[in-house]
Structure to design on (231 residues):
């Protein structure tokens, strides 16, 4: 039983490295993905694939403009958010203000069980800064800085690297340059996995436990920057 459990856990870890490219872009991307695995992970992945037809894929998503900081502007399809100018007056009057001082917006669909995968591209001038991750629903009037237990798990991404953050606190510096990042959330296991959506390489994993609904979370901190969801 312990060996079977270990194999299952290893397979689960392998799945976290998967992006929707495996399903939508064919054998070339699949080969690149398999080549990135070590021997044990590759064996586990092939075994899993023989017995499962459904693979984790990124899901269509839109942004919830009603949750947004008023400095952000949106495309008509709610797939893109931009921070064109920073108006501090608007920011101090922002409602809801749970995630102040971030110029942020939540994804439109929350998660309270199962798993979900999404990808987002960050664009902007040199020195751009974006935040991509997961935020727990907060009680009315609460703010992220004084919410007690962690309610935000994210990457703060700049043109020179990225920092894993919980609430407003940075964990460490990662010298990884990212343009498009994927997020895999397994609600039941409490796993939040970040990967480079272009190279399929793992970046960082938070391991936690959820006690309420969580939402995709996106933020911008540099004027002239934007985020675009895919698909």
């Amino acid at each position: 039983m312990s060996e079977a459990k270990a194999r299952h856990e290893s397979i689960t870890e392998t799945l976290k490295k998967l992006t929707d490219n495996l399903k939508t872009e064919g054998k070339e991307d699949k080969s690149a993905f398999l080549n990135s695995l070590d021997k044990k992970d590759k064996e586990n992945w092939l075994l899993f694939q023989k017995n499962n037809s459904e693979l984790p894929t990124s899901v269509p998503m839109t942004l919830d403009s009603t949750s947004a900081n008023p400095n952000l502007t949106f495309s008509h399809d709610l797939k893109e958010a931009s921070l064109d100018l920073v108006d501090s007056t608007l920011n101090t009057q922002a409602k809801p203000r749970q995630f102040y001082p971030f110029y942020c917006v939540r994804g439109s669909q929350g998660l309270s069980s199962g798993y979900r995968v999404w990808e987002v591209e960050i664009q902007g001038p040199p020195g751009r800064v974006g935040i991509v991750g997961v935020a727990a629903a907060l009680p009315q009037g609460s703010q992220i800085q004084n919410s007690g237990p962690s309610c935000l798990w994210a990457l703060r991404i700049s043109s020179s690297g990225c920092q894993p953050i919980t609430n407003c606190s940075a964990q460490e510096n990662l010298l990884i340059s990212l343009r498009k990042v994927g997020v895999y959330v397994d609600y039941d296991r409490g796993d939040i996995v970040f990967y480079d959506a272009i190279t399929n390489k793992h970046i960082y994993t938070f391991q936690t436990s959820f006690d309420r609904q969580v939402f995709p979370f996106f933020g911008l901190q540099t004027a002239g920057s934007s985020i675009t969801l895919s698909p």
